[in-house]
Amino acid sequence: MAQRPLAVAGGHRTTARAAILFEAFQGADPVAALLILRHGTTATYHIGHTTTAGRAASAHTLLMWTAMCWCAGHGHQWLDLGLVETQRNAGLARFKLGTGADVVPLGGTWVHWPPLRPLRRLTWLDRKAMIP
Question: In terms of pTM, does the model score above 0.85?
Answer without folding.
Answer: no
